[in-house]
Amino acid sequence: MSGHNKWSKIKRQKGVTDLKKGKIFSQLSKAITLEAKRGGDPAMNPGLKFMVEKAKSVNMPSDNVEKAIKKGTGELEGGSIEEVLYEAYGPEGIALIIEGTTDSTNRTVAEIKHILSRNGGRLGEAGSVKWMFDRFGYIEVDMKDLQISEEETEMIIIDSGAEDFNIPEEDTEDKIIVVYTKPESLYKVKENLEKNNLIAGDVGFEWKAKNTIKIEDEKINERIEKLFEALDEQEDVNDVSSNLAD
User: Where are the domains of the chain?
Assistant: First the structure.
């Protein structure tokens, strides 16, 4: 299985320090509030525990985390947060899945439509794109930190309950193993890996295209890049997946 889609890689390379922390904290607050609606105790709610861990990894203030949890449990006002998913097309008909969290679906869909139309894309109907993708959980493990052989690492990953994994080529600078799981198995697989001293880095969910398309035209790729950047700057957008090949 190939690695993350192209835009996921770009976002990781940019890093937290290059992004507006205000947007990151806003996204995490909404995600924590959403998860807390299913239960405000991280020990009993794996989804909430996962989001709180993400918040800690980017040094989000603990007060912000507590407020977001209380909004979700109803102890504070402002918990009217919804998950949204839009299916769309970009330049040259590339398929896009745009995920986000919002307190105003009307505002969010209007802004996303505007971004798409301004950058050679359009919103699709429900079901028009999602069939081209599979949903996976992913866990990144940095090979530079490993004290065991590649063969031993592979056996630990296989025994963890993972669906698949990707080990980079020897000449690749990015020495990150990407472990793929069924969405519902993400937390359990992460736990199994860490029991065997494979420390998880970035963890999350993504849509992976069943088939990818490669675009050689540099000008078209620049247009696609601008679209990705504009979507990433929209406050309610959390992730963008595409069928664009690396």
Answer: 82-132+211-242
